[in-house]
Amino acid sequence: MSEQEFDVAVVGAGFAGMYLLHRLRRLGFNARVIEAGSDVGGTWYWNRYPGARVDIESMQYSYQFDDDLQQEWRWTERYSPQPEILKYARHVAERYDLRRDIQFDTRVAAAVYDASSARWTLEAEDGSKITTRFFVMATGCLSKPNWPQIEGMDSFAGPTYHTALWPHENVDFTGKRVAVIGTGSSAIQSIPVIAEDAAEVFVFQRTPNYAIPAHNAPLDKKYEKKVKDRYADFRAEAKQTPPGIHGRFRQGGALEVTSAERKAEYERRWANGGLSFMGAYGDLMFDQDANDTAAGFVRDKIREIVDDPDVAELLCPTNIIGGKRLCVDTNYFATYNRDHVHLIDVKERPIEAITPDGVRAHGKNYQVDALIFATGFDAMTGALTAVDIRGKGDALLRDRWADGPSSYLGLAMADFPNLFTVTGPGSPSVFTNMLPTIEQHVDWIADCLAYMKDHNYTAIEATPDAEAAWWEHVQDSVADGLKATTNSWYLGANVAGKARVFMPYYGGFPNYCRKCEEVVADDYEGFAFA
Ligand code: N01
Predict the structure, then answer these.
(1) Ligand 1: which residue has its CA nearest to atom 6?
(2) 340 by DSSP, 3-state: which?
(3) Considering 50, 339, 408, 425, which has the largest number of Cβ atoms within 10 A of its Cβ?
(4) 447 C-alpha vs ligand 1 centroid, how far in Å?
């Protein structure tokens, strides 16, 4: 980073950082975005593993701040593949001339607040520094890769990949023996594609996952036109649903209908495909018996698809459906019918070691040519605690969050003045369509900075009381349902040693937006200005 002074420094040039830069420029702020990667795109820059694709329909997974942009851009598939989303991000960067204020290939290592000047100093890994009045972490919820702790981790002699750090050049598995560790969304998307080329695929599964078919297809032109003819209304309707996604969310209970009606509803949703499966009944995440009906339906589908009954049983999840993020797949379960795809259950007997030529489990060395970790992320907090963020009184965010995060609205933290997080812990973020959620956060932050400018304020900080009350509300939002009963990355359960605290807000997008609006209407209730 060059030794310059800015009004606002933004870390991350994904969809959040790009839109924030655009908004800040229009408000007359001198802003700089700092990005570790070599290009824009954030999650879509890094997660370029085979089969990577969004699980929200393309017509919804896009910006809406500029009607010309949303009218002109043409998606080609129902669910966009990673290369097309990256192309879209690049288009946005060009269209709004964003790159001139983005510093690429620069990873921020530390940020220190100076109370006397009310400014932050950011230091990059290369030692360069900038100072800034405001500092925004737009680093995403799923951006710090999680590496498991397995004996011999570094001993494998062949190429090792992580789905979240996939190389930019083409990786050819033709004729290769490949091991995949993990069976989350990234694995479920990539395994069928890898199996197309590889000679042998060994999948090491600790916990099976529920997946609903994507039924991806070229984007229906009539549907595209129908949406574009009323895009603003379509977007507004989406924002009224708990996840901020346009779709059919039924209110009634799963057990209020006959089993035949229920099965027909699940069949309709299975045939339609995607995440809307969980919208079948309003109580699926609140009533164990209701949840069992949906979970049992998917398990029966797995048993229908997978030829070998033993393999099918191994692939059937036993936890509740929807406790972990539901996966959306293309040919995942059917891939296990291929003779060269092998499932190795490591639930009761974990992987023993990574060896120079493979993976050892159940006393056997599975020899492979390539090793893939599809082991997910240090979610929600990982990218924030990776930076030495020091606020007032030298408070270190990483220490502050040692027993779990806490935040006011997922936007700001007490003792960290002039620091904002986009889709931080305590906001609905990963339970919603991330693009509109990002826009809502960015608009809130940009409007707040404009308000401060108008009122000649130099510092803003969440009050401890407001933060504590909001965090209690975040915990209350999951207290009654089943959501927090599963070990998931929402809880930090996937990372060894991480505190188990439920991190996203489960109260729904409309309630969250209303609260943010009320805070503003009440002269930024819960924030203190200086
Ligand atoms: O990561 P995950 P992901 N031995 O944490 C296993 C989003 N996303 O990258 O469940 C053996 O879900 C681990 O096992 P377990 C989406 O929100 C979206 O797949 O901890 N296995 C699990 O199976 C998603 O939820 C899309 O028992 C080990 C896997 O690794 C989120 O990102 C696509 C292990 C990790 O699964 C994360 O998905 C991709 C070990 N030692 C991702 N350690 C879309 O569709 C870990 N595992 C848009």
Answers:
(1) 182
(2) coil
(3) 425
(4) 36
Q: Ligand 1: which residue has its CA nearest to atom 10? A: 207
Tell how far the Cα of 187 is from the centroid of ligand 1, in angstroms. Answer: 7
Question: Is 183 touching ligand 1 by the criterion CB < 6 Å?
Answer: yes
Residue from 194, 366, 494 to probe ligand 1 pocket by mutation (most atoms less than 8 Å from CB): 494
Check if 14 has its Cβ closer than 6 Å to any atom of ligand 1: no
Nearest residue to 323 via CA among 347, 304, 298, 301? 298
Consecutive 10-residue averages of pLDDT for the chain (530 residues):
84 98 98 98 98 97 98 98 98 98 98 97 96 98 97 97 96 98 98 98 98 97 98 97 90 96 97 95 96 98 98 98 97 98 97 98 97 98 98 97 98 98 98 97 98 97 98 96 95 95 97 98 97
Superfamily of domain 4-144+378-473+502-529: FAD/NAD(P)-binding domain (3.50.50.60)
Alpha carbon distances (Å) from 407 to 378, 459, 468, 469, 490? 18, 17, 8, 10, 15
* Ligand 1, atom 26: closest residue by C-alpha: 185
Q: Where are the domains of the chain?
A: 4-144+378-473+502-529, 160-373
